[in-house]
Each structure stands twice: as C-alpha cells, then as structure tokens.
Specification:
The chain has about 325 residues and is mostly helical. The chain has one domain: Ribonucleotide Reductase, subunit A. The protein starts with a helix and ends with a helix.
Length: about 325
C-alpha cells in the first residue's frame, strides 16, 4: 500500500478532530452535571422512612447522622478554579484582616470535633462526627488555597492541640458555629447583593457556607438527642456545662466587639463576626435590615432538609428579640 493511501485524508482528520471536540464537550457537560447533582444533594435531603420522629430516640439519632453523611459534597479543594479578580476586587479581598483567624479557626475546629469523635462508642454517630471534623479540616484547606491563589500572606499557624475536655471542645465548637454561621449567612448574602465580592468568587465559596449550615443542623439535633438520652441525674451537670460554654462564648464575642479577644489573642475569633465592619457592609444595611437578612437566609439554608429535624432556635430567637429592641 502506498504512503498516499496509508495517510489519513483531510476529511478523516476533520472527522477525528470533530469527534474529539464532541467527546471533550460531553465530558465537560457530564462533569458540570455531576457537580450540580452533588450540590443539590448537599442542600436537599429527606429520610425516606415516613412517620413522626421523637427527639432523643434511636431513630432521631439515625436521622441526623444520615443527614450529615448522605449530604456530603465530595468537592476537592485542590482542584477549585479560583477566579481571576480585577485589581479593585483583589484589593478588597486581600485587605480584609480575617484570613489568619479564619484558617486557624477551622484548624482548631477540626481537631476539637475529632477529639470528641474519638470518645464516642456508637459507630454511626462516630462516623458522622468524623465526617464533620473532616469537613472542618477541608474548610481550612479551602481557605489556605484561597489565600495562596490571591497572594495573601498568613502568620505562622499555631499547633492545634486537642482539648483536655473533649465534650467541652465539641460544645464550644458547635455553639460557636451556631452563632457565627447565623451571621455569616446574612453577611455572605449582603456581599453577594452589594457586589463587594465578585459573583464568581461568591459562587466558588458557596459550598463552604452551606456546609456550615449542615454542621449546625447536625449539632443542634445531637444536642437535643444527647440531652434527652442522659439519665436524669446527669442532666443538671450537663446543662451547667452548656451554660458555662455560652458564658464563655458571650465573653469572647464581647472581646471581639471591643477589638480584642477574650484571652488577649485572636486565636478563637471567627471571621464572620468581624466581616461586617471589615467589609464595610454595615454602611448599606441598618441593624434591623441585617438581622432580617440573617433570619431569612437561615431559613432558606435550612429549608431543604427533613422537616422532622430540629432547627437552630437560640440564636434566631435572640436575634428577633434584639430586632424588637432596636428602633
């Protein structure tokens, strides 16, 4: 056979090129579809077994553990395509004095959650707690990749040590997230509406915010289940510990409001609490409007999950009280 006959014709080359392009396009569509399906599954979940669920029961335990495990979004921080920012947007992002605190907060949370998981004997609950801790660790990686992508210098990280009382560490992390996520929901929506952060960056970071919603939903259901599962003689000491945690968190946030931390450092502050002043969002929203936005966003982010799960109540209730006291 001659070389002329053996060589592919121009038509054949064109057809091969077209086939490759179609295959590439099909792969891109499939990848996008998979991402959209994972994102939907993370936000919408109902247990298929019908009937009422009593808080504190074995079925309640299975319900909130399955919620967390089955709504896990398997995105990988290492392959996140961080959008290019124009100079003004880059300046706004890099000038926020929150990134050290944000990375360290997530690193500390992951250690605390895992320390508590190590004390749990029930295999389903332990698995869910380990998932929670792994997602907290992933948040730290996401934030680390973000600051790396935009050239934000971080201070050296401290060593993340497990707490001496794992239950205290878990309670402090859970209730802290209940406070901070409530305000983060509103601040994130405000940043989106105001254009303070580019839409591409907001959408890239969106899964992290929704994961925090899952975490507090899991935590408040664990708290409801655990309190009811304790023998009566242990409940007073547990409730006293919860009260001490809330006093600690209130004291910590008063320190944040004054520009200092409760222990004289920034190690336990959570960045959403500082963002309103740092980002300048408070100049466009009144306090009442900000509370309304936090409340509506909290409801929206919880709406897709099984209605038989308990919802966070303490922080929204305090926010509504504060709103009534504001002129």
């Amino acid at each position: 056979m001659s070389d002329a006959l053996a060589a592919p014709s121009r038509t054949e080359k064109t057809e091969e090129s077209g086939a490759e392009a179609r295959a590439t396009a099909a792969a891109a569509i499939m990848a996008k579809t998979a991402v959209e399906q994972a994102d939907y599954a993370m936000r919408n979940w109902t247990d298929p077994e019908p009937g009422p669920v009593r808080l504190g029961s074995a079925r309640h335990l299975r319900l909130f553990c399955d919620m967390l495990l089955q709504t896990h979004n398997p995105y990988k921080p290492a392959v996140i395509d961080w959008p290019r920012l124009d100079p003004d947007a880059l300046r706004r992002v890099t000038s926020l004095p929150i990134w050290d605190i944000a990375v360290q907060t997530e690193g500390r949370a992951s250690v605390r959650v895992q320390a508590f998981a190590d004390t749990v004997a029930d295999p389903l609950l332990r698995s869910a707690l380990e998932m929670d801790g792994a997602e907290e660790a992933r948040h730290k990686v996401v934030l680390s990749k973000l600051v790396e992508a935009y050239g934000i210098a971080l201070a050296p990280e401290p060593e993340y040590l497990p707490p001496t009382d794992p239950e205290w560490g878990w309670l402090a992390t859970g209730y802290s997230e209940c406070i901070d996520s409530f305000f983060a929901f509103g601040l994130f929506a405000a940043a989106r509406k105001s254009g303070y952060f580019p839409a591409e960056l907001v959408e890239t970071f969106e899964p992290v915010i929704q994961e925090e919603g899952r975490h507090i939903l899991f935590f408040v259901n664990w708290a409801a289940w655990y309190r009811r599962s304790l023998p009566w003689w242990r409940r007073p000491l547990y409730l006293l510990k919860v009260a001490r945690v809330w006093l600690f968190l209130i004291r910590e946030r008063i320190g944040i409001a004054r520009g200092i931390e409760a222990d004289g450092s920034a190690k336990d502050a959570n960045f959403p609490m500082n963002m309103n002043n740092s980002a300048g969002l408070g100049t466009t929203l009144t306090a009442r409007e900000m509370i309304d936005l936090c409340l509506s966003e909290n409801e929206r982010r919880m709406a897709g999950y099984d209605p038989r799960l308990a919802r966070p109540e303490t922080v929204p209730r305090l926010a509504r009280l504060a709103r009534r006291l504001l002129r």
